[in-house]
Write a structure and sequence with these properties.
The protein is 31% helix and 17% strand. The chain is globular, with a radius of gyration of 18 Å. β2 and β3 form a beta hairpin. By secondary structure, the protein is α/β, with parallel strands linked by helices. The chain has 9 helices and 10 strands.
Protein backbone atom coordinates (compact mmCIF):
# COMPACT_ATOMS: atom_id res chain seq x y z
CA UNK A 1 0.00 0.00 0.00
CA UNK A 2 2.83 2.41 0.86
CA UNK A 3 4.49 1.65 -2.47
CA UNK A 4 1.30 2.41 -4.38
CA UNK A 5 0.83 5.67 -2.52
CA UNK A 6 4.43 6.67 -3.19
CA UNK A 7 4.02 5.86 -6.89
CA UNK A 8 0.93 8.04 -7.08
CA UNK A 9 2.72 10.85 -5.23
CA UNK A 10 5.71 10.71 -7.55
CA UNK A 11 3.45 10.62 -10.61
CA UNK A 12 1.56 13.68 -9.39
CA UNK A 13 4.85 15.47 -8.68
CA UNK A 14 5.97 14.79 -12.24
CA UNK A 15 2.71 16.20 -13.56
CA UNK A 16 3.08 19.36 -11.49
CA UNK A 17 6.47 20.01 -13.03
CA UNK A 18 4.71 20.38 -16.40
CA UNK A 19 1.39 21.88 -15.28
CA UNK A 20 1.36 25.57 -14.39
CA UNK A 21 -1.78 25.66 -12.26
CA UNK A 22 -4.92 23.88 -11.16
CA UNK A 23 -8.05 26.01 -11.16
CA UNK A 24 -11.59 25.40 -9.96
CA UNK A 25 -14.04 25.77 -12.82
CA UNK A 26 -16.64 27.36 -10.53
CA UNK A 27 -15.80 30.54 -8.66
CA UNK A 28 -18.44 30.20 -5.94
CA UNK A 29 -21.26 27.65 -5.70
CA UNK A 30 -21.00 24.38 -7.62
CA UNK A 31 -24.32 23.92 -9.43
CA UNK A 32 -26.31 20.69 -9.18
CA UNK A 33 -24.64 19.65 -5.94
CA UNK A 34 -25.87 18.83 -2.46
CA UNK A 35 -24.20 18.06 0.88
CA UNK A 36 -23.05 14.45 1.21
CA UNK A 37 -20.44 12.22 2.77
CA UNK A 38 -18.86 11.53 -0.64
CA UNK A 39 -15.10 12.09 -0.65
CA UNK A 40 -12.75 12.19 -3.63
CA UNK A 41 -10.56 9.14 -4.00
CA UNK A 42 -7.29 8.59 -5.88
CA UNK A 43 -5.74 5.15 -6.38
CA UNK A 44 -2.81 3.79 -8.35
CA UNK A 45 -3.61 0.60 -10.22
CA UNK A 46 -1.26 -2.13 -11.39
CA UNK A 47 1.10 -0.59 -13.92
CA UNK A 48 1.16 2.75 -12.12
CA UNK A 49 -1.93 4.28 -13.71
CA UNK A 50 -3.78 6.80 -11.54
CA UNK A 51 -7.57 6.68 -11.21
CA UNK A 52 -9.73 9.33 -9.56
CA UNK A 53 -13.31 8.75 -8.42
CA UNK A 54 -16.02 10.57 -6.43
CA UNK A 55 -15.06 13.99 -7.78
CA UNK A 56 -16.68 16.77 -5.74
CA UNK A 57 -14.58 19.78 -6.80
CA UNK A 58 -14.23 19.91 -10.61
CA UNK A 59 -11.00 21.48 -11.81
CA UNK A 60 -8.86 22.23 -14.85
CA UNK A 61 -5.15 21.40 -14.74
CA UNK A 62 -3.44 23.84 -17.08
CA UNK A 63 -0.55 22.85 -19.36
CA UNK A 64 0.62 25.95 -21.21
CA UNK A 65 2.55 25.57 -24.43
CA UNK A 66 6.02 27.12 -24.39
CA UNK A 67 5.96 30.76 -25.50
CA UNK A 68 8.12 30.09 -28.54
CA UNK A 69 5.76 27.31 -29.68
CA UNK A 70 2.34 28.57 -28.57
CA UNK A 71 -0.02 29.06 -31.52
CA UNK A 72 -3.16 30.24 -29.72
CA UNK A 73 -5.08 26.96 -29.89
CA UNK A 74 -6.46 25.29 -26.76
CA UNK A 75 -7.75 21.78 -26.10
CA UNK A 76 -9.78 20.67 -23.08
CA UNK A 77 -9.27 16.95 -22.35
CA UNK A 78 -11.95 14.70 -20.82
CA UNK A 79 -10.38 11.44 -19.54
CA UNK A 80 -12.41 8.23 -19.69
CA UNK A 81 -13.41 5.72 -17.06
CA UNK A 82 -17.00 4.63 -17.70
CA UNK A 83 -18.46 7.59 -15.78
CA UNK A 84 -17.22 5.76 -12.66
CA UNK A 85 -13.62 7.01 -12.47
CA UNK A 86 -11.15 9.15 -14.42
CA UNK A 87 -8.04 7.72 -16.11
CA UNK A 88 -6.45 11.08 -15.38
CA UNK A 89 -2.86 10.40 -16.43
CA UNK A 90 -2.63 8.34 -19.64
CA UNK A 91 -5.88 9.86 -20.99
CA UNK A 92 -5.19 13.28 -19.54
CA UNK A 93 -1.83 14.59 -18.34
CA UNK A 94 0.26 12.56 -20.82
CA UNK A 95 -1.86 13.76 -23.74
CA UNK A 96 -1.64 17.36 -22.54
CA UNK A 97 2.17 17.20 -22.74
CA UNK A 98 1.95 15.87 -26.30
CA UNK A 99 -0.38 18.72 -27.27
CA UNK A 100 2.12 21.18 -25.76
CA UNK A 101 4.69 19.84 -28.24
CA UNK A 102 2.31 20.94 -31.01
CA UNK A 103 2.12 24.46 -29.55
CA UNK A 104 -1.35 23.81 -28.09
CA UNK A 105 -2.24 24.86 -24.56
CA UNK A 106 -4.06 21.96 -22.88
CA UNK A 107 -6.48 21.76 -19.97
CA UNK A 108 -7.20 18.42 -18.28
CA UNK A 109 -10.75 18.43 -16.95
CA UNK A 110 -11.42 16.65 -13.68
CA UNK A 111 -15.19 16.47 -14.09
CA UNK A 112 -17.80 15.23 -11.67
CA UNK A 113 -18.90 11.64 -12.14
CA UNK A 114 -22.61 10.83 -11.81
CA UNK A 115 -23.51 10.34 -8.16
CA UNK A 116 -27.01 10.35 -6.63
CA UNK A 117 -25.61 11.08 -3.18
CA UNK A 118 -23.96 14.39 -4.10
CA UNK A 119 -26.02 15.53 -7.13
CA UNK A 120 -29.76 16.22 -7.43
CA UNK A 121 -29.58 15.21 -11.14
CA UNK A 122 -26.61 12.98 -11.84
CA UNK A 123 -27.34 12.85 -15.59
CA UNK A 124 -26.30 16.46 -16.17
CA UNK A 125 -23.34 16.81 -13.77
CA UNK A 126 -20.56 15.84 -16.23
CA UNK A 127 -22.03 18.02 -19.01
CA UNK A 128 -22.42 20.98 -16.65
CA UNK A 129 -18.70 20.74 -15.91
CA UNK A 130 -17.64 20.30 -19.54
CA UNK A 131 -19.71 23.29 -20.66
CA UNK A 132 -18.42 25.42 -17.78
CA UNK A 133 -14.84 24.43 -18.66
CA UNK A 134 -15.36 25.64 -22.24
CA UNK A 135 -17.01 28.81 -20.96
CA UNK A 136 -14.19 29.53 -18.51
CA UNK A 137 -11.38 28.94 -21.02
CA UNK A 138 -13.16 31.13 -23.57
CA UNK A 139 -13.78 33.92 -21.05
CA UNK A 140 -10.14 33.86 -19.88
CA UNK A 141 -8.62 33.48 -23.33
CA UNK A 142 -6.43 36.58 -22.98
CA UNK A 143 -4.98 35.30 -19.70
CA UNK A 144 -4.14 31.94 -21.28
CA UNK A 145 -2.86 33.59 -24.49
CA UNK A 146 -5.29 31.63 -26.68
CA UNK A 147 -7.76 32.40 -29.45
CA UNK A 148 -11.34 32.10 -28.09
CA UNK A 149 -12.41 30.79 -31.50
CA UNK A 150 -9.87 27.92 -31.39
CA UNK A 151 -10.94 25.85 -28.38
CA UNK A 152 -11.27 22.12 -29.00
CA UNK A 153 -12.66 19.35 -26.84
CA UNK A 154 -11.03 15.91 -26.63
CA UNK A 155 -12.47 12.84 -24.96
CA UNK A 156 -11.50 9.22 -24.38
CA UNK A 157 -14.05 6.40 -23.97
CA UNK A 158 -16.77 7.74 -21.63
CA UNK A 159 -14.90 11.05 -21.79
CA UNK A 160 -15.55 10.77 -25.53
CA UNK A 161 -19.24 10.46 -24.75
CA UNK A 162 -19.01 13.61 -22.65
CA UNK A 163 -17.09 15.44 -25.40
CA UNK A 164 -19.53 14.32 -28.11
CA UNK A 165 -22.44 15.36 -25.87
CA UNK A 166 -20.90 18.81 -25.45
CA UNK A 167 -20.36 18.91 -29.22
CA UNK A 168 -24.00 18.13 -30.01
CA UNK A 169 -25.98 19.66 -27.10
CA UNK A 170 -24.50 23.17 -27.00
CA UNK A 171 -27.57 24.95 -28.39
CA UNK A 172 -29.38 24.43 -25.07
CA UNK A 173 -26.75 24.52 -22.31
CA UNK A 174 -27.63 22.77 -19.07
CA UNK A 175 -27.71 24.85 -15.91
CA UNK A 176 -28.21 28.57 -15.53
CA UNK A 177 -25.57 30.94 -16.91
CA UNK A 178 -26.09 34.65 -17.41
CA UNK A 179 -22.95 35.36 -19.44
CA UNK A 180 -24.22 34.03 -22.80
CA UNK A 181 -20.70 32.76 -23.52
CA UNK A 182 -20.80 30.09 -26.22
CA UNK A 183 -20.21 26.53 -25.00
CA UNK A 184 -19.79 25.13 -28.51
CA UNK A 185 -16.36 23.53 -28.99
CA UNK A 186 -14.63 24.67 -32.17
CA UNK A 187 -13.54 21.10 -32.95
CA UNK A 188 -13.84 17.62 -31.43
CA UNK A 189 -11.34 14.80 -30.97
CA UNK A 190 -12.95 11.50 -29.96
CA UNK A 191 -10.77 8.53 -29.00
CA UNK A 192 -12.48 5.12 -28.83
CA UNK A 193 -15.56 7.06 -27.69
CA UNK A 194 -18.79 5.88 -26.18
CA UNK A 195 -21.30 7.48 -28.54
CA UNK A 196 -24.54 5.51 -28.52
CA UNK A 197 -26.71 4.49 -25.57
CA UNK A 198 -28.78 2.15 -27.74
CA UNK A 199 -29.16 -1.42 -26.48
CA UNK A 200 -27.05 -2.81 -29.31
CA UNK A 201 -24.12 -0.39 -29.12
CA UNK A 202 -24.00 0.95 -25.58
CA UNK A 203 -21.24 0.54 -23.06
CA UNK A 204 -23.49 -0.70 -20.27
CA UNK A 205 -21.53 0.78 -17.39
CA UNK A 206 -21.43 4.27 -18.90
CA UNK A 207 -25.16 4.28 -19.64
CA UNK A 208 -26.17 2.92 -16.24
CA UNK A 209 -23.88 5.30 -14.36
CA UNK A 210 -25.18 8.36 -16.23
CA UNK A 211 -28.91 7.70 -16.70
CA UNK A 212 -29.70 4.61 -14.62
CA UNK A 213 -30.35 0.94 -15.20
CA UNK A 214 -33.83 1.40 -16.69
CA UNK A 215 -33.71 4.76 -18.47
CA UNK A 216 -36.71 6.09 -20.41
CA UNK A 217 -36.51 5.86 -24.19
CA UNK A 218 -36.37 9.63 -24.66
CA UNK A 219 -33.30 9.89 -22.41
CA UNK A 220 -31.58 7.02 -24.24
CA UNK A 221 -32.18 8.89 -27.50
CA UNK A 222 -31.04 12.22 -26.05
CA UNK A 223 -27.68 10.76 -25.00
CA UNK A 224 -27.19 8.69 -28.15
CA UNK A 225 -25.08 11.35 -29.78
CA UNK A 226 -25.05 9.86 -33.27
CA UNK A 227 -28.72 10.94 -33.30
CA UNK A 228 -27.90 14.49 -32.14
CA UNK A 229 -25.47 15.49 -34.91
CA UNK A 230 -26.52 18.54 -36.95
CA UNK A 231 -24.91 20.81 -39.51
CA UNK A 232 -23.60 22.85 -36.56
CA UNK A 233 -21.65 19.98 -35.01
CA UNK A 234 -17.94 20.90 -34.87
CA UNK A 235 -15.37 19.28 -37.21
CA UNK A 236 -14.45 15.93 -35.71
CA UNK A 237 -11.41 13.62 -35.51
CA UNK A 238 -12.06 9.99 -34.53
CA UNK A 239 -9.81 7.07 -33.55
CA UNK A 240 -10.91 3.53 -32.72
CA UNK A 241 -9.67 -0.07 -32.85
CA UNK A 242 -11.81 -2.62 -34.67
CA UNK A 243 -11.21 -5.27 -32.00
CA UNK A 244 -12.42 -3.04 -29.15
CA UNK A 245 -14.54 -5.36 -27.01
CA UNK A 246 -15.40 -2.73 -24.41
CA UNK A 247 -16.78 0.01 -26.66
CA UNK A 248 -17.80 -1.32 -30.06
CA UNK A 249 -16.13 0.36 -33.02
CA UNK A 250 -19.62 0.99 -34.44
CA UNK A 251 -19.87 3.86 -31.96
CA UNK A 252 -17.29 5.81 -33.97
CA UNK A 253 -18.67 4.54 -37.28
CA UNK A 254 -22.18 5.80 -36.51
CA UNK A 255 -20.93 9.20 -35.45
CA UNK A 256 -18.79 9.46 -38.59
CA UNK A 257 -21.76 8.48 -40.77
CA UNK A 258 -23.89 11.13 -39.05
CA UNK A 259 -21.18 13.73 -39.71
CA UNK A 260 -21.12 12.72 -43.38
CA UNK A 261 -24.90 12.97 -43.63
CA UNK A 262 -24.91 16.47 -42.13
CA UNK A 263 -21.82 17.54 -44.08
CA UNK A 264 -19.72 18.02 -40.94
CA UNK A 265 -16.00 17.71 -41.78
CA UNK A 266 -14.74 14.50 -40.17
CA UNK A 267 -11.60 12.37 -40.26
CA UNK A 268 -11.49 8.85 -38.86
CA UNK A 269 -8.60 6.46 -38.23
CA UNK A 270 -9.40 2.81 -37.58
CA UNK A 271 -6.83 0.29 -36.43
CA UNK A 272 -7.47 -3.45 -36.84
CA UNK A 273 -6.17 -4.09 -33.34
CA UNK A 274 -5.48 -2.23 -30.14
CA UNK A 275 -8.45 -3.05 -27.96
CA UNK A 276 -9.73 -0.40 -25.60
CA UNK A 277 -8.07 2.23 -23.45
CA UNK A 278 -4.68 2.37 -25.16
CA UNK A 279 -4.30 6.11 -24.62
CA UNK A 280 -1.60 7.56 -26.86
CA UNK A 281 0.15 4.23 -27.49
CA UNK A 282 -1.53 1.51 -29.51
CA UNK A 283 1.15 -1.15 -29.12
CA UNK A 284 -0.14 -3.19 -32.08
CA UNK A 285 1.04 -0.65 -34.66
CA UNK A 286 4.04 1.57 -35.34
CA UNK A 287 1.63 4.28 -36.43
CA UNK A 288 0.92 6.96 -33.83
CA UNK A 289 -2.52 8.51 -33.92
CA UNK A 290 -1.21 11.70 -32.31
CA UNK A 291 0.82 12.28 -35.48
CA UNK A 292 -2.39 11.88 -37.50
CA UNK A 293 -4.06 14.33 -35.11
CA UNK A 294 -1.25 16.83 -35.60
CA UNK A 295 -1.63 16.58 -39.37
CA UNK A 296 -5.40 17.09 -39.10
CA UNK A 297 -5.06 20.11 -36.83
CA UNK A 298 -2.39 21.59 -39.09
CA UNK A 299 -4.52 21.08 -42.21
CA UNK A 300 -7.37 22.94 -40.53
CA UNK A 301 -5.19 25.88 -39.53
CA UNK A 302 -5.32 25.27 -35.78
CA UNK A 303 -1.53 25.00 -35.48
CA UNK A 304 -0.86 28.25 -37.35
CA UNK A 305 0.33 31.12 -35.18
Amino acid sequence: MKALFLTALLSCSSVLLHAQQVISIYSVTIPNSKPSEVKENMVTETGGRIRISNVIQPTLTVFRAAKEKANGTAVIICPGGGYARLAIDHEGYDVAKRLNEMGVTAFVLKYRLPNDQSQPDKSIAPLLDAQQAIRLVRQRATEFNINPARIGLMGFSAGGHLASTAGTHFAKPVGDDKTNTSVRPDFLMLLYPVISFSDSLMHGGSRTNLIGSNPPADQVKLYSNELQVTTQTPPTFLVHAADDKTVKVQNSLRFYEACLYHKVPAEMHLYPQGGHGFGMNNKTTKDNWTDRLQNWMDANGWLTK
